[in-house]
Structure formats: C-alpha cells, structure tokens
Design brief:
single chain; Rossmann fold; six-stranded parallel β-sheet; five-stranded mixed β-barrel; globular; binds 5'-deoxyadenosine; binds iron/sulfur cluster
Length: 458
C-alpha cells in the first residue's frame, strides 16, 4: 500500500492504523526507529504520540548494560496492562535485545513480535503475518543491509538536527561489548546515498547532521562496479561538508585505534564540521585496555589526543569510561583518573562495568570488582569529570561562539538554547530569533553543564 504523504516528517492521521514507537539506547537506535517508521508509513501506518492510541506498540531496545534491559522488561509489563484493556493491540520488540534474547522474549505474554536490527525492511509484513495468530520472529543478521535506500522519517522534535547512519555493525570485538553480537559485522553505506540524504535534509530545513557509526574511522566504501574506487571516512566527511556551508556536520563514534590525521585535516579545512570528537578511552590502564581488546595503549591514545590538539586547537574531546572492569586494581583505576586529568575531557559518559552474557569477558574473565567498589570508583570518576567539565566551560567565558538555535529554554520562552561547535549547551536571551537560526554569542558565565551567554550584535 502506498499513501499520499511524502515527507521526512511523521504522518499524524487518526484514520490510519496507529503505531507508537519507544526508543532506548544509542543515537543509532533512534535512527533505526526512524527507518522503521519510514517502512511503516509506506505500508499505510501513521505515528501516534501515546501508548493508549496505538494499534501497534514497538519498543526499540538496548542491551549494552543489564540495567538497560531491566528497564525494557518493566516496559513490557506496562504494555501487557495496555493489551488487557484493549483488544487488537500488538506489541513488538525491536533492536539489540531482540537480537540477543531471540525466542526468549516471546515467552513474555505481552510480546507478539521480535525483530532484530536487520529485519526492519520487512517489519510491515511481520506485523501483517500476526493475523495468522502465530507470534512472529525475524532475527537474521544480513551482511549487506545498510537501509541505504530508505529515507528515515525524522523523530527529532526541532526539525534542526538529524542523524544519518553511515555504517552498521561492528568488527572490533571489545571484550566487554555485546554490540558485535547484536548488530552483526561492520558494513559501510554507499556515500552517494549518504550525501543525498544530507542534501534532502538541508532542503527540508535541517541545519545539522550527525554521521553515525560504531567506529566511523573504519568507514570504507568499495565501489562494487570499480573496486579500485574507495571512499574513506575523511573523504566522506568532506563530501557531506560540501553539501552546504550552512549545514553543520558532526560525527560519532571515533575509535582511537583507527583515527588518523586525515580526518583532523578535513575538520580543519571546513568550518561547518564541528570541532568536537567523541573518543572513548574506556580505561587509562594498559593492562585493562589489553584485556578489553581495545588495540591501543595509553601512550597511543595520548598521542592521538596530542595530534587533535595540534591540528584542531579549539576541538572539544569527550569520552566513555568504564569503572570496575574484570580484574581492575586500584592502580588501574588510578591510571583512569590520571588519564582523565591529563586529557582534561570536556565531557564524558561514565559507566560501571556490567557483565554481558556470551561476550569474551564473560567467557574468559571474572567480574570480580565488588558492586560497592565499582560504584565507589564510578563516583570518583564522575566527581572528577564534573570538575573537568566546569574547568572546560570556564575557559569559554569571555569568548564568542557560533550557536545553532535548537529550542527555547525550559525556564522561559525568551531564553533560547543551542550548542556551540564544541557541543556545549549554551543559553541566551533571543531577539526575535527562531529555531534553526545561527547566532554569535559571547559567554558570560557557566556551570559544569551549561554556558550562559549574550547575543553579539552583527
Ligand atoms: N558495561 C559497561 N559499559 C559498557 N559499554 C559498553 N559495554 C559495556 C558494558 N558491558 C560502554 C562503553 C561504550 C559505551 C557505548 O557503553 O563505554 O563506549
Ligand atoms: Fe546501541 Fe549498543 Fe545499545 Fe545496541 S547495545 S542500542 S548498538 S548502545
């Protein structure tokens, strides 16, 4: 079935079957939900805002840590209550947890359908097949699937920034990580389709795209018609930056083992590529990095940071850190603390290690740091980062930045917020400006989380 709509925006039409999608986990999952919605809209569904209106309830899930999965089990219980209240509601579990737990999820009385990350092209057929009265499952991983021909229906609220997946899967095999099992092998997407998507977004009024991949630095497209013609990440970044100077370009995630200077030089050449690099360190200890199978040393990581500072002096660096990995000693933990200070991260996502079934760490190592001690180490890391984030923000006070306006502040409608190229949230009083405008602001004060600024008259 086709329909009359053709848009990057969700269809809201109560005469059509209603689908409700709840998304957990990473930005890639948000973008996957947008692909799912695109497929479903083509099949005649419309998006609804609440569970209570839905004919189809989908939950796109994350398996990265145990608490992410626990939250979703809790949601399934809520969906079950909804199903008991109304007839003709179907519930589908999508994403990483679907891929990891497979049939086990069908045991939950709420669940009718289980669909892994490479099955979304067929999601409407899977839902239709529920009419047979049989529960449905498709968890096949496909080596080629990149959804390159599907234009995601954007679920962002502001119409300003959008995600573009440039690759899927992961080949890195970090010993703690479930992603290679839930998302399969790495595959890169045709650069032409990526550039086309960026162009379409710009034409639809978007001002910022974030290129997504588990490891963008290993992006590699080999033209199937001419196998000597290849595109690497630095080249792709340039192609997207050239779409329009008023389209900001961000990307995530970089891998310290694969990032070269080429990407940094491309960033230096194009002002619309934002000066922010998310460079997960995970640990500052060589022993832990080796056990994590990260394939770089502390020295190698710091070399990369040095190159970023040299080539892009005002580039922000953020990171991911895991506290209490298998066998982590107090000395290893102290190495993490010291590398954080040495780099002076602008921001960080910080976690305690959560054992994931069937990963290499689960099979070969012991999860032996007691929970209380993991929490203590994590709290120390968080406290340090709060200080580092504050110090980083204080350095911005008195300086001018270009901010892309993303919305009005929660406190007052006159107050607008956006982000600097370095990805710092900035709040200021607007003067008739609207969402999607670029403005120059001067930072007047800050907290560890936010810059307060005033407009610079042009
Ligand atoms: N336990 C805790 N944190 C993890 N991450 C990945 N796997 C685990 C795990 N088993 C973190 C890493 C990664 C981020 C996305 O999630 O820091 O970079
Ligand atoms: Fe994203 Fe990883 Fe969570 Fe899957 S397991 S949703 S890839 S963060």
């Amino acid at each position: 079935m086709t329909n009359k709509y053709c848009s990057v925006k969700p269809i809201k039409d109560s005469s059509l079957p209603q689908v409700f999608i709840e998304t957990y986990g990473c930005q890639m999952n948000v973008n996957d939900s947008e692909v799912v919605l695109s497929v479903l809209q083509k099949a005649g569904y419309a998006l609804c805002e609440s569970l209570q209106q839905a004919n189809v309830i989908l939950v796109n899930t994350c398996s990265i840590r145990d608490n992410a999965e626990q939250r979703i089990w809790g949601r399934l219980d809520v969906f079950l209550q909804e199903k008991k209240k109304r007839k003709n509601v179907v519930v589908g579990v999508l994403g990483c947890m679907a891929e990891r737990l497979k049939e086990e999820l069908l045991q939950h009385p709420a669940v009718d359908l289980v669909a892994g990350p490479d099955s979304y092209r067929n999601i409407a057929n899977l839902i239709a097949a529920l009419d047979t009265g049989e529960k449905q499952i498709n968890i096949k991983l496909l080596r080629e699937e990149t959804y390159s021909d599907i234009s995601p229906v954007r679920l962002d609220k502001n119409g300003v920034s959008a995600f573009i997946s440039i690759m899927r899967g992961c080949n890195n095999m970090c010993s703690y990580c479930v992603v290679p099992y839930t998302r399969g092998a790495e595959r890169s997407r045709d650069p032409h389709s990526i550039v086309r998507e960026a162009q379409e977004l710009f034409e639809a009024g978007y001002k910022e795209v974030t290129l997504l991949g588990q490891n963008v630095d290993s992006y590699k497209w080999i033209n199937p018609d001419n196998t000597t013609e290849t595109t690497n990440f630095a080249q792709l970044l340039e192609l997207v930056a050239l779409v329009n100077p008023k389209l900001r370009v961000r990307f995530s995630t970089s891998h310290p083992k694969d990032m070269g200077n080429g990407v940094l030089y491309t960033m230096a050449m194009y002002p619309n590529i934002c000066n922010h690099i998310h460079l997960p360190v995970q640990s500052g200890s060589d022993a832990m990095l080796d056990k994590m199978n990260r394939k770089y040393t502390r020295e190698g990581y710091l070399y990369r940071v040095g190159k970023i500072r040299e080539i892009l002096p005002d580039c922000a660096i953020s990171t991911d850190i895991i506290a209490g990995f298998c066998g982590e000693t107090l000395e290893d933990h102290a190495d993490t603390i010291s590398i954080m200070k040495e780099v002076g991260y602008d921001s960080a996502f910080m976690f305690q290690y959560s054992m994931r079934p069937n990963t290499k760490a689960h099979r070969h190592f012991t999860d032996d740091v007691p929970l209380e001690e993991k929490t203590r180490r994590l709290n120390e890391i968080i406290e340090l980062q709060n200080g580092l984030s504050l110090a980083s923000n204080q350095k911005c006070v008195g300086k001018e930045y270009e901010v892309l306006i993303e919305g009005t502040s929660k406190r007052s409608a006159e107050q607008l917020f956006g982000r600097t190229p370095q990805n710092k949230v900035c709040v200021f009083d607007g003067k008739g400006h609207k969402i999607g405008d670029y403005v120059t602001v001067k930072v007047t004060s800050c907290t560890s989380a936010t810059l307060m600024a005033e407009l610079v008259e042009e």
